[in-house]
Amino acid sequence: MHRKLDLADIQGNILHAYGRTGFPLARCILLHVNQGRAAEARLFLDDLRHRVTTAALWRSRHTENLPPDAITAPKPDVAINVAFTFPGLIALGVPVRTLRGMPDEFQEGMLRRAPILRDVHDPHQPITQLWDPVWVAELEDQRHCVHVLITLYANASPEQFDSPRAALDASYQQLANQCGEDRGMKILRGHRGPGDTYQDMAVLAEPFKEHFGFSDSIGDPVFAGQYADEQRMQKVVRGQGKLTANQEWVPLATGEFLLGYADEAQEIPGAAMPNDFSRNGSFMAYRKMHQNVQAFDDYINHKAELYARIHSLDQEEARETLRAKMVGRWSDGIPLMHAPTYGQWQAERAALAAMPPGERELYQGRMLREFHYGDDPDGSRCPFSSHLRRSNPRDMLDPTTLQPGRGEAKKATSVLNNRRRILRRGLPYGQSGPGISDQEEHGLLMLVICASLFRQFEFIQQQWLQYGLDFDAGNDTCPLVGNHDDRSKFVIETAAGSGKPPFICDQMPQFVEVRGGAYFFIPSMTALRLIAQGLVDPT
C-alpha cells in the first residue's frame, strides 16, 4: 500500500527541489538570537511560520495530471523555509531533555567536525582564512554564532511583483525590518560576495548547469510517500529508488529522509522527544563549495593533449572525454553507462533530437537515471573513481555484482547503497566564464537533506569522496570534489584486450574548496509552532 504523508506538516524544501520547479533565484539568510531576547525571537518565528512553504502541492507542469483535490496550496511568489542549528535551539529555549536526544554530529556541528570531513584541503592554512567569516566568527565571539537559516526561493512568474528579483528583495526586506541588535534576532554579516548579509544563488541555464558546465540535479532518490500515486511509478522507474534482486526499481524507505518513519533497516531510530518534535522533520548539511573553474578547464585542456595523442583523437573529443570520465556523465547529463564513447554520445544526442518532444522527455528521463554498474565490472565504461560512481555506487558495491572470470553470480541489488542516499537541494552562486578569475566568488551551494547526517552525508563525504579503497583507488580522492595534493591522481581504466594502458591524470590541482557551512534541523510545521510558542514538552 502506498504511504500517504501529511504534506501540510512537512516543509516544502524536503520534498521539492525548488530550483527545478520554476524558482530560479534564491537567497540564504543566517540569523542569531540576541542574548536575553529569546521570547522576542520566538515571536518573530511565530509570525514567520505562517509564511513558511509546506510540501502541499500547487498547480504546475509537474502536477498537471493530478486530480483537482490533490492541489491544496497556491504557488507562492517566494518559497520560505526555516531551519535551526543546535546552538540555535538552545538559544530559543528548547528543553535540555529534548536537545539531548539530538544526534551527536548535529550537536557538535560541521565547523567542529571539519577535520573528520576533511574540509580543510590545505593543512597550512587555518579554517578561519578558508571559510567565509560568517561561519567562523563564533570562534572569536559567541554573539556571532549561527542559530537560524532562512531560505527564500523566488518564483519565475510572481503574481504580485514585476520580476523574481523584485519578489526576492521584497521578502528579504520584510525579514530585515524585523531584525536588529535591539530585536529578538539579528542578521549575521560576513558572506563573501556581493551581499554581506546574505548568500544569493541562481539557475545558470536550462537545463540546470553548474559552473564546470555539467547538467546537475539529476539523480535525487525517490522515497515512499514523496509523490502521489499518479507520479510515483513514473519517478521510480527512472532509477531513482532502490534496485531489488529482480532488477526492479522501487521507492526507498521514508525514514531515510524523514524522521519518525521506518528506514531501510525497518527501524525507527531514536529521536528527540516528544515525538511531535522530530516527526516529519529532517536534517540538513549546508555546504558552500567554491569551484576553481579556470583551474579545471586549464587542467583538462593540458591533459587532453596527451590523451589525444595516445588515443588518436582530436583535441575536442579528448577534452570532452576526459571531462566525462572524471564526472561519470557527459556535459548534457547522459551517463557513460549509456554512452561510454564520444561517438556513442553524439549518436545518442542525435537520436534524442530526432524524437517528438513527448517521447524525448520520457526516454531522456529514463536514460539519465536508470542504469547500474553491474554491467561494468572492470570500470572501462565508467571509471571506478569517477565522481558519479563514488557519490552513488548503485549496485557496484553489492557482493552479488557479476565478476569477470567467476561465472554467473546472482543479480545485484543496491542494498549496500540504500542507506547512503541523500536529497540534494541548492543552486549555483556567482558568475564564471572567460576572463573571470578563480579568485572571484562562484560555486555551488549544496543543501544536503537526510535523516542521519552521520550515516548518510558524512559517510559519503568522508568514506567515498575522500578515500578510495572502496573503489580500488587506494588513497585517491574524488577527482572532482576530493582534496588533492602533489600525489593526487585519477585512473581511467581501459577495456581488457584493447592494447591501451590505463590513462593517469596526475598532479591534479584543487578544483573545489569548501567555504563554509553548518548542520541544521528542519522542523515540521508542528515542531516549528512548538518552538515558536515555547511549548516543547519532552515529557
Folded structure, characterized:
It is built from 18 helices and 14 strands. It has helices spanning 12-15, 38-48, 86-91, 96-99, 104-108, 114-117, 127-130, 133-136, 164-177, 229-240, 275-278, 293-311, 315-327, 342-354, 357-369, 387-391, 453-465, 525-532; strands at 25-33, 78-84, 148-154, 185-187, 199-202, 242-243, 249-250, 282-291, 423-425, 428-430, 442-450, 489-492, 503-506, 512-522. The radius of gyration is 23 Å and the shape is globular.
| Number of alpha- plus pi-helical segments | 18
Let me know the average pLDDT.
92
Helix content: 25-40%
The share of residues in extended strands comes to: 5-15%
Report the C-alpha radius of gyration, rounded.
23 Å
Q: How many β-strand runs?
A: 14
Shape: globular
Could you list some keywords that capture this structure?
alpha+beta; five-stranded antiparallel beta sheet; globular
